[in-house]
Amino acid sequence: MEAISIGLLGLGTVGSGVVKIIENHQDKLMHQVGCPIKVKKILVKDLNKERAVKIDNEKLTTDPDEILYDPEIDVIIEVMGGMKETKNYMIKALRNRKHIVTANKDLMAVHGSELLTIASENECDLFYEASVAGGIPILRSLVDGLASDRITKMMGIVNGTTNFILTKMSKHGSAYEEVLKEAQVLGYAEADPTSDVEGLDAARKMTILATLGFSMKIELDDVKVEGITRITEEDLRYGRQLGYTMKLIGIAHREGEKVDVSVQPTLLADTHPLASVQDEFNAVYVYGEAVGETMFYGPGAGSLPTATAVVSDLVGVMKNMRLGVTGKNSVTPQYKKQLKEPSEIYSKYFLRLHVRDEVGVFANITSVFSEHRVSFEKILQMPLKEKEYAEIVLVTHQASLQDYEDILVKLRDLQAVKTIESSYRVEGSANV
Amino acid sequence: MEAISIGLLGLGTVGSGVVKIIENHQDKLMHQVGCPIKVKKILVKDLNKERAVKIDNEKLTTDPDEILYDPEIDVIIEVMGGMKETKNYMIKALRNRKHIVTANKDLMAVHGSELLTIASENECDLFYEASVAGGIPILRSLVDGLASDRITKMMGIVNGTTNFILTKMSKHGSAYEEVLKEAQVLGYAEADPTSDVEGLDAARKMTILATLGFSMKIELDDVKVEGITRITEEDLRYGRQLGYTMKLIGIAHREGEKVDVSVQPTLLADTHPLASVQDEFNAVYVYGEAVGETMFYGPGAGSLPTATAVVSDLVGVMKNMRLGVTGKNSVTPQYKKQLKEPSEIYSKYFLRLHVRDEVGVFANITSVFSEHRVSFEKILQMPLKEKEYAEIVLVTHQASLQDYEDILVKLRDLQAVKTIESSYRVEGSANV
């Protein structure tokens, strides 16, 4: 086989990493795919910008059609990001029988199934390992490694920015705003951090994971999302005291035929394998009926880690090209989507309240819970500086989301409750 | 495609799991491979033994040829264990163009490359994911997920029995012999635990991992092996005090073109991701030049976890059969094996000595180290019950194995040194 020519859409952080890996590991790649890999053309916005890698200027172009319509280019690597325009490029490429490797989680979360159908119709591979958890080969593990199992639960720390912020807040007792600024200086958070800190980025990744893991077409809108911006130092301190670590966790849970997917700040028992995932690292915990507990840990972002996933996908495409079996790997979802009702979603909850420090108040509050048959795992009561108020921290046993939301409404109506300071989902049982 | 018929060699722990998963997950498997899977025949030793699964008696046979020569059987699942006889069965099967899925680490560690060659010559798949770390899809991750990277280090907790024993010893301060008995009662250790506790089982798995990860034909004899039988409660206690956890770690390390592979009890910094792998769980930590740190965690043994890996491999074979591309996946080693010399293998070491409590002794001992330019990270000295002796605990900085072994010889010759109580490899830097 002659050299394979590839086209790159984008030459930012990940694109530069892809160029570097193809150069540095050319020997290994050639041994695996049987021919050299040549980056022929790269789409960029600005021809004169300074680059992190040395690139022959003739390879750069601002005209996507020079790549999308080049008959010599067999595979396109999409690392430019973006939605509508990028999607159009990808459709053009697939219709021109070009295989695609992409790191674009936004696009795959929203238009993944449409694009995969077009790929399959054109006998093209469309691989997207890099879209979830950077360097961790989690999509392959779900699809191939655990192919024979029935996956019932996935829990992911799939956003490095928020995990970095929560780790620093926990370790140093710093406030959210302060750590966010540090993360921005270090390059772990963007100037506009909304998509990360509001949980949207994690929700996109959970959409992709749940669709693959449950073989069911989960949409981004199906995912309940809550970010980390309202987490306070008090919450972290109480969590620690009770044996829990605060993490932004994506949970996809299947019971019977029904599923629910959510991204929420979660107090995770310190004994859980995910609780020790620090800083900007990612990890995905997968529970399968037969295999039991597994976890996949690694860098969730960064130039070279993400590029490793991209180029490994490229190797997969090239092996398929050699065997003449491209476009045969994607499995259409097996099950019709069925989402759980709030009455079917169970969790434990952490609740922090400020209440009047008067006789009977505690009984008032707990009776709201017992009306819904929700009992407690832990209860703390502490005096507050304002003498007439006290702080109550509750950790419930399992309760349905429906019941819990009804309880919150009733608590807000109680005269004795001044404020509901915070409320989080709780996972696992702490030893403390 | 009609039903695929498979033959099973063996119906023990893993074999029963395979039968269960094929029954319980028939729907998912059929969706993926496009046809039903039928277990046609199972080789057993005793037709009348009671089984963990319900099996039609007509399916059982004591004659291997009924499976190996059955033209209807396309895939053979080898879960009987054993070496010579099993190898002959596998060769017969491959020559009859039957694909094989095996969980046999002993066989693959010793005869893997021979068997893979025969498989490839006969256009057959030979998959063996289950042979290393049970339910963790680590072999696929090395070969596919990290295909584009250059792997420089692998560290594995790949034996559940010894990890269970060391976890219990660490948590409860119990003695080795006591915990071994408990493990035997619970079924985590065999009546003859030699292969596990002497590190041989882990060495076989490291042979397979190193061969794949470094693309180099590593042999079992290349692996330096030391078991856990001489680890004492004192060693664990000192380790804890210094911020280290004792684990039986397989390390495969590549520097430049040279590698070394070993299995040894290792004091691992508490901050290392492997340090929190408890009980009978397994984990493999992989360091790649581009991806950086990754870790794969899960159950290392057990009926259903191991069977998950076996049946996921079966799905892989069946997908390849459908596409007509069996026997094309194995990549022959790219590099010629080059093992490091003892002078090229670097590590930190923990050393515990009993010495005469006299003036000048400490200077005597440390001067042996400085002759070899080895310095210390930590030093502890404690009095012993026998008044004239003291206990010294040293943690060195990086030293070559050559230097360290020379130092041990010299220390043994010193009059002031009564005994070298223990000596372990140290990995990572503790925060303590």
Structural commentary:
The first copy, chain A, is of the alpha/beta class. Chain A folds into three domains: about 5-135 and about 305-325, NAD(P)-binding Rossmann-like Domain (Rossmann fold); about 140-300, Dihydrodipicolinate Reductase, domain 2; about 345-425, ACT domain (Alpha-Beta Plaits, 2-Layer Sandwich). Chain A is about 35% helix and about 25% strand. Chain A contains 14 helices and 17 strands. In chain A, helix 4 (about 85-95) links the parallel strand 4 and strand 5 (about 100). Chains A and B meet through helix 1, helix 2, helix 6, strand 12 and helix 12 of A and helix 1, helix 2, helix 6, strand 12 and helix 12 of B. Strand 12 of chain A pairs antiparallel with strand 12 (about 290-300) of chain B.
Topology:
The structure is a homodimer of 432-residue chains.
Chain A: E1 4-9, H1 13-24, H2 26-33, E2 37-43, E3 60-61, H3 65-68, E4 73-78, H4 84-95, E5 99-102, H5 105-121, E6 126-127, H6 138-145, E7 151-157, H7 160-172, H8 176-186, H9 194-197, H10 200-214, E8 223-225, H11 233-242, E9 244-255, E10 258-269, E11 281-288, E12 292-299, H12 303-323, E13 346-356, H13 361-371, E14 376-383, E15 389-396, E16 399-400, H14 401-413, E17 417-427
Parallel strand pairs in A: 1-2, 1-4, 2-3, 4-5, 5-6, 8-10, 10-17
Antiparallel strand pairs in A: 7-9, 7-11, 9-10, 11-12, 13-15, 13-16, 13-17, 14-15
Binding site for L-homoserine (chains A, B): 190
Keywords (chains A, B): Amino-acid biosynthesis, Metal-binding, Methionine biosynthesis, NAD, NADP, Oxidoreductase, Sodium, Threonine biosynthesis
Pfam families (chains A, B): ACT, Homoserine_dh, NAD_binding_3
